[in-house]
Design a protein that fits this description.
Layout: H1 3-15, E1 32-38, E2 44-49, E3 61-68, E4 75-81, E5 85-88, E6 96-105, E7 108-109, E8 116-119, E9 128-134, E10 140-145, E11 157-162, E12 165-168, E13 177-180, E14 188-196, E15 208-211, H2 225-260, H3 265-313, H4 319-369
Antiparallel strand pairs: 1-2, 2-5, 3-4, 3-6, 6-7, 6-8, 9-10, 10-13, 11-12, 11-14, 14-15
Length: 370
Amino acid sequence: MTTTGIILILLVSSLVIPLEYSHADTTPLSPTNLKAQAISSSQLSLTWNAPVNATQSNVNGYKIETDVGCIGFFTVLVANTTATSYSNNNLVSGLCYGYRVFALNSAGTSSSSNVSSATTFSIPSAPTGLIVTPVSSSALKLSWNVPADNGGTQITGYQIQRNGTVIVTNTGNNRTSFTDNNLLALHQQTYRIAAWNIVGLSIFSNNATAKTENQTGNGSPTDTGNLGHAISDFVHKRNELLKKQRDEVLKVMKDCTEKMRNTNSTQRKQIQEDCKIQLNAIKEKYKDSIKQFKNEFKNFRETAKSTLNEAKKDKAADKNDIKEFKKDVKSFEKDGKKQEKEFKKELKSANKNLKKENKNQKGKNHDNED
């Protein structure tokens, strides 16, 4: 063999790569341990483990598919993500979502992981089995069963309505009983309840009705003091509400008056507009509460008439008690009118100051222009 031939053989042999050292990516194995979990009424979280051969097969991403409604029909949710977790947002409350994940590399796509599903949180179903039983001449006890479906998250409390009016917005606990006190003897009350969770309030339970016991059954006089106590409590709450609203309104008007000082006409107009917006916001804020108080006021008047009639018929009733009760009712109505009158008077005064300041500033600006 010539020298040239030997050199060529050596060159060719040096370029050949042994077969045992060659390598190409293979399709990865499936991701494992996929778990879907509800986070809120609109969010689910996913976690999974990488395939056992992820490193060897050079896994470079994952495809996520979802089955909306858990009906067995999957569509691509995420074409490629490198993470092993995912947060699916903007979902429908109370709907089931199924998921499966695939591993990706240069050779292709793995087979599917396990399928995992979860349902977003929703409001609870209605509490059931509400019953009301008399405890005394002034108290009724409510008891009920927890909702069959808590919406996927724990019950945080119950709202209680009596005769269509909310008496407890949220009990703040998961107890399934409640005693309503300070009621009138021989008066019928109708209740219904709804359950709270972090999503919101359920629909209401069945209505349940009961009547307080008769306090005069043993010859004891008709209890006018019970209603008197309720009226006193009502007046106090109403006055607190009016005071709170009044203070907020007067503060806004005072602030507006202060801001108007040393301003030009354009600035004054803007301040006035801002003040109107704030005052309307306060009005809306207290609108429902004031409406509720007005409804309760009507109920008190009707109850007062009924109680007075019962007391007059009751021979054992103390005439002085009846007299005091009448005074309480009159005082209640008089106090309500007085509070409203004072509020209007203060508003009128504050409004007058606001207009006066506006006029003063106009005068100052006019003098400056001259």
